[in-house]
Amino acid sequence: MKKTITILGKKFTLNDDEEYQGKISIWGRETEVWIETELEDDYENNIIERINWLNENRDAVISAFMKDNDHYVDVINKMIESGEFKADKPITEEDYANALFVRYLNIIESGDETEISLDLDAEPDYLLGHLAFMEISSDYEVECGGING
Question: What domain of life is recorded for the organism (predicted)?
Answer without folding.
Answer: Bacteria
